[in-house]
Design brief:
This protein has 167 residues and is α+β, with helices and mostly antiparallel strands. The chain is built from four helices and six strands. Strands 3-2-1-6-5-4 form a six-stranded antiparallel β-sheet, sandwiched between helices. Strand 5 and strand 6 form a beta hairpin. Helix 1 packs antiparallel against helix 2 and helix 1 packs parallel to helix 4.
Length: 167
């Protein structure tokens, strides 16, 4: 059973440290990648405040396809090089966008989103998708979120065989 109240009173960094530790425990004994990504997105949604969408887009046949997520219905397919997610894939870099409305070519799936962080899923120099998180606040994501989300991605890469879900 998951009780969010156990995190009351913790600092932001303490919550993120717990989030990373809990992810490892949640997915280490489960082989199904979709199950693990569903729990990974739910865990971020539970412990990262002031966000309105979190989820994964997975590379399939040369484009990003919507995977497990938490939030409003989302864009189902994103072309490589388009929007923040597609740009993250083409550049193989983390994108921390302070104001999505100033990002040329931003794809607005949720009108409430004002800032975004996207981490490419890279294993053995191959991009398998992205982790995408949106916030209704401008400037919501900092180096602190990026630091812990990089650790989060390392755990996902440790346990998930991306070849199982990416084409």
């Amino acid at each position: 059973m998951f009780d969010i109240k156990i995190f009351d009173g913790l600092s932001k960094e303490e919550k993120y440290e717990n989030m990373v530790t809990m992810l490892d425990a949640l997915i280490k004994d489960e082989e199904d990648a979709v199950t693990n990504l569903a729990n990974a997105s739910a865990l971020i949604n539970a412990l990262m405040d002031r966000i309105n969408w979190v989820g994964f887009y997975i590379m399939k046949k040369g484009e990003l396809v919507l995977g497990p997520f938490q939030g409003m219905p989302a864009c189902t397919r994103i072309k490589i090089g388009k929007g923040v997610c597609g740009t993250s894939v083409s550049s193989k870099s983390i994108m921390r966008i302070e104001d999505v409305h100033s990002f040329e070519g931003h794809i607005a799936c949720d009108a409430a989103s004002n800032s975004e962080i996207v981490l490419p899923i890279i294993k053995n120099d191959k991009v398998y998708g992205v982790l995408d998180i949106d916030s209704p606040e401008v400037g919501r994501f900092t180096e602190v979120e990026e630091k812990y989300l990089v650790q989060y991605m390392e755990i996902l890469n440790k346990y998930i065989n991306w070849e199982d879900i990416s084409l």
